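Appendix B, Record 12. Input sequence as logged:
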Amino acid sequence: EMKVRDKAYRESHREEVKSRDKAYFRAHRAEQNTHYATYQAAKLQRTLKSVNPEEIKAFYIEAKRLTEETGIKYSVDHIIPIKGKYVSDFHVPWNLQVVPLIENISKGNR
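Logged structural output:
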C-alpha cells in the first residue's frame, strides 16, 4: 500500500522529486563516492582470476545495447549479491544477468 502511494506521489511530482534527489546527491557527494569505491573494490575482490574479462564486459555491452534499442534503462545485475548480508557470490558471468534498471533497483540487495 505504501509502495503504491509513494510511487503515485513520485510520478505526480516528478520534477520536484528529481530536483530534491539531485540536491541530496550533490550535498552528499563524498558519501556517494565512498559507497561507489567500496562497491567497485568488492567487485574486484570477488572476481575470479580465471574468468575472461571479455565475458563479463559482454553483459555491460548488452545492457547498453538494450537501453539504446528500447529506450528503457537496463543494468547488469548479480543474481546472488556480491555483498549480501547472509550470502554472497562472485562477480562472474554465471552470476550476472541483464535486467531493466527499475527491476534491479527495486530488488535491492536481495
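The helical segments are 2-12, 14-27, 29-45, 53-70, 101-107.
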